[in-house]
Design brief:
29% of the residues lie in helices and 24% in strands. With 500 residues, it is α+β, with helices and mostly antiparallel strands. It folds into two domains: 18-107 and 327-497, 3-Layer(aba) Sandwich (Beta-lactamase), CATH 3.40.710.10; 111-324, 3-Layer(bba) Sandwich (D-tyrosyl-trna(Tyr) Deacylase, Chain: A), CATH 3.50.80. The protein has a six-stranded antiparallel beta sheet with strand order 2-1-20-19-18-17, sandwiched between helices. Strands 8-6-3-16 form a four-stranded mixed beta sheet. The protein has a four-stranded mixed beta sheet with strand order 4-5-7-15. A hairpin with a 3-residue loop joins strand 1 and strand 2 (78-82).
Length: 500
């Protein structure tokens, strides 16, 4: 028999994975198209040995076999799987699917555009009309690249207005958000948690993750110092914090009713605590954007009178901001940012389904899955972030998505957006020991009782790379033990395939 096809792996493989992913893609094509040519122990006995070991690791952690699904494609061994067609809650592994579909259907260079228009004449520095901001779903017109200035990307717009001779606006700042339709807060999500940053509603216009950053502390003259970024005139804050001398009693609570701007801050603040940062979502992304931008214009020397002026539909584009889908994908995948995923999900719905709603988006994603992968009919897509517990995927489907991604010409660039074990993102504190650091590229998923992991393992000193998907849905008990199972499985596989 011919020797197994080898895939060269750099000795020190941390992030320079483009050449390797391309080679692995070639290996996949070779494996699928020429099964009689590739050598290795593809026997059912060998596959069962791998399967039994993975199940034994779960058993050692007291995880029932019925609660886990896995699918591994191991060169020289074949497909190793267990309950691979069982529908399970994927949590944030949904983001891997949404991003892969978006890259394939729209292209990684697809532009997310936001335009600034004027709809009236300018005379003697006065715009006799309105400023109109047209949003098209960019999850972060102002991202968090500058922690000290959360409006940094809008400041050039202020300068552009002044360079056009505008120092006063007779009308208002208006938001054109018709690109999206329907609610930005998914009906499957708990309304009582709407104030939490990870439940931020998506909109055609998004600013600062659709959150207000609250800063509490230190204590000065018997009072807890307080500030907010960006400045938001719509928000009203009530501070009912009590000072305590015991650090163990330090506990802050921040509340906001679902559709209100009033924010209540309560709890106990330790007198010796330094400044701390908190987040609270905004009830309306468009209102948040318009109000913050209007306030910024004032501080930058452009006054807005706020008169009601209707000059019709036409407008002149004065400035724009544009970001590629690729540029947003690292935050989406590495950091598992929910808002980014749901925004891109709805962009898919708009561009390919006719409207930017969750309903159109899930229909678009389902169509892609049915046309691209077999046995996709039972799958359920509800949102892009994976926050909905009604989503249902299989480990085999996730594995197929990973394999399809790495076979694309942009596969290496996509893999670069995933969290890297022991290095960054949601895997920064995982998979950093025993030769795994920098060798696992994957998307995590976590909800109460749910843990998923899907991506690539590239063992040290080996030419054999593994694509994988693991899902655990617990009936009781925490998801933390499931993460231990995933980590130990990858550690064992790395030992099996280590070429040293």
């Amino acid at each position: 028999m011919l020797p197994l096809l080898k895939v060269p792996v750099p000795d020190r493989f941390v992030s320079g994975n483009r050449a390797l992913v391309s080679s692995f893609a070639c290996l996949l094509v070779f494996l699928f198209s020429s099964p009689d040519v590739v050598a290795g122990d593809f026997s059912s006995e060998n596959r069962n040995r791998y399967r039994d070991k993975i199940l034994q690791i779960a058993k050692d952690l007291k995880i029932p076999e019925s609660e886990i699904s896995f699918s591994f494609r191991v060169p020289g061994v074949g497909l190793v799987s267990h309950r691979e067609e069982t529908l399970r809650i994927p949590a944030s592994a949904m983001k891997l699917v949404v991003t892969a579909a978006a890259w394939e259907l729209l292209g990684p260079d697809f532009e997310l555009k936001t335009d600034l228009l004027i709809d009236g004449p300018v005379s003697n520095g006065v715009l006799a009309g309105n400023l109109i901001v047209v949003g098209r779903g960019d999850p972060a017109v102002v991202g968090r690249e500058d922690e000290e200035d959360v409006l940094w990307e809008l400041r050039p717009w202020c300068q552009q207005l002044k360079s056009f001779g505008i120092t006063s606006v007779k009308g208002k700042v208006l938001a054109d958000i018709r690109y999206f339709s329907g609610p930005g807060f998914h009906p499957d999500w708990p309304r009582q948690s709407a104030q939490q940053w990870y439940y931020a509603a998506s909109g055609a216009l998004n600013l600062n993750d659709n959150c207000l950053d609250l800063f509490l502390g230190p204590v000065s003259e018997g009072e807890v110092e307080f500030s907010v970024r960006p400045l938001q005139p719509l928000a009203k804050f009530s501070n009912r914090l009590k000072l305590v001398k015991d650090s163990k009693k330090h506990l802050i609570r921040i509340d906001r009713k679902f559709d209100e701007w009033n924010v209540a801050i309560s709890g106990a603040f330790f007198q010796g605590s330094q400044k701390q940062k908190f987040h609270v979502t905004v009830p309306d992304p468009a209102e948040n954007f318009v109000s913050a931008f209007t306030n910024l214009l004032s501080t930058e020397g452009v006054s807005v009178a706020g008169e009601s002026i209707d000059l019709g539909e036409s407008g002149q584009i004065l400035a724009n901001i544009s970001h590629s889908l690729k540029s947003r994908s690292a935050v989406l995948l590495k950091n598992s940012q929910n808002l980014y995923a749901d925004s891109i999900f709805r962009v898919l719905g708009k561009e390919l389904g006719g409207e930017g709603s969750f309903v159109a988006a899930k229909a678009t994603l389902r169509k892609w899955a049915l046309q691209t992968f077999s046995d996709s009919d039972p799958l359920i897509f509800q949102d892009g972030s994976g926050l909905s517990r009604q989503n249902r995927l299989t480990s085999q489907f996730l594995l197929n998505v990973v394999d399809r991604v790495i076979a694309q010409e942009w596969g290496a660039d996509f893999i670069d957006q995933l969290a890297v074990g022991g290095v960054d993102g949601t895997l920064r504190k995982r998979l950093g020991q025993n030769g795994l650091k920098g060798r696992v590229f994957a998307k995590t998923g976590t909800l109460t009782g749910v843990s998923s992991l899907a991506g690539l393992l590239i063992p040290q000193g080996s030419s054999e790379s593994v694509s994988f998907a693991m899902i655990c849905n617990r009936k009781k008990g925490s998801a933390a033990v499931a993460r231990k199972w995933q980590d130990r499985v990858l550690q064992w596989l790395e030992g099996q395939l280590d070429g040293n």
